[in-house]
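Researcher: Structure for this, please.
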Amino acid sequence: MTTHRLIQELLDLQNAYARVPRAIVTGERLQHELSKGAKEIDVKRQDLREPLLEHVGHLPVLASFLHSRIEHSREVNLGRVLVMLSIHDIGETVVGDVLAYDKKPGETEKENEVARKLLPTDLVVYFDEFEERETLDAKYAKSIDAIAPFLHEIGMPNLTRKRFAAYGFGSKNIEAKKRVLFEWDEVLKDMFAEILDAFHKIERGEQSGFKVVADLKID
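Model: Predicted structure, token format:
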């Protein structure tokens, strides 16, 4: 492969990641809408969604910050975790993002199949390890991937309540689907319990208990 071709492939990959919107409305985008006088927000609006590139960029910050604080810090190889986090969603550059609670049978398998075709052979090993979630490195990477959207949601309680209604899920779905990702480490387990408590408060019409970045006033 020529150097020119290598650079072009990197550009193509970057652009593919940048074009995929995810089903998360970030505080920054909401704040911008509110500054323009918006009173109501369609939580499914594509232009308010977090781009895949932004999501993948968020994860290394969280993983690096939390690494020294988790119970199994010494057993988790942060470098390997960062590789997993950088590639785990590459299939979405082709199939797009489907909200975890809306995924139909076969959609995850299709996304994973695409990912394995896109990745060079030496990275497929990391991808499969992440999906199998048997090693501590993979368990930590999965935990971080789950925490990232939680942080957006608990900081915007009113918008999150509206989003729960729009997509038809809530704290019970989150607990059933995500609890297993945190049970392997006491620190992360405690964090999930605290986050789940915040979601319960949001559903009751209360504030999450955490600092609000930007939010709508919803009756």
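Researcher: Any notable elements?
Model: The mean pLDDT is 90. The first helix runs from residue 3 to 19.
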